[in-house]
Amino acid sequence: MIQLVSIAWAYRRVIVEPMQFQQLAYFVAVADARHFTRAAERVHVSQPSLSQQIRALETELGAPLFSRARGNITLTDAGEALLPLARRILADADTARHEVLELAQLRRGRVRLGATPSLCTGLLPDVLRVFHDRHPGVRLLIEESGSHDLVRELARGGLDLALVVLPLPNPSPALTTVELFQEDLVVISSAAAEPPRSPVRIADLEGRPMVMFRHGYDLRDLTLAACRSAGFEPYLTVEGGEMDAVLGFVRAGLGLGVVPSMVAARAGHDLRVTPLARPGLRRTIALAHRSDVAPPRAARVLQDLLLDGALLTGG
Q1: Which of 63, 90, 217, 295 could form a disulfide with 78, with the two C-beta atoms 3.0–4.6 Å apart?
Q2: Is residue 228 part of a domain?
Q3: What predicted TM-score, i.e. pTM, was given to this entire model?
């Protein structure tokens, strides 16, 4: 408890003392590299200077941050407690720096946007094209991952916004989510293969060869749950692919796939798209950001664009 109080006191000093930011950056570098010399090279300082600043930080906190037994660098309990908060402080400081650098009319800036693979394929190309045409000086940094990983990146300050699929696996009050739209799922098949009946009932998929996404995909969980609710386990010829791989496997005639309608619309003429019979399958897409920190200006402009229902629905 005493160590945690000391760490909290040091955080307050970090806000007003620039050297403390440097000490935290050195601390994170050593924590990542687990080696003082490599960490010094990474932050472009001499190894003695880095070691001196780490010792000064440890003295101020009143606790060692690293165990240096036999040249093996590991985090102490105090170091483990400090690391996620140090990352958050440095990420927030970096965001603030970019916010200040943004000029009028967004001639400069940066947006760190996370999205699931299917949304990167189906939704983002059109949205980002419009945003880039309006603000060509703003850098767009895209992280493609599952909803669970994107939520974790948001919480630690690594992203400004994230497009996720609801419901979230571990909803947090520290995040704000706004529902954007609901999207139908459709069945895709090779144009050269025998077409499924239209519309396709979930029961019609029983015994049909299917291509399935890897574990961790929202689409995988949704499709498997629907098949099991209909009383059968799907016959999977190939499983474990990302979005592009699944589309390629279906094109090759390895089986049917279940994908979002926006992805299917971009899939090309070598794939046949068949709707699912009512009630079908739908998923809810939401935009998420941290509740305790307002997104930077450029991210807020992109957020407004994503909240434009006409753009999202192609209207």
Answers
A1: 63
A2: yes
A3: 0.66
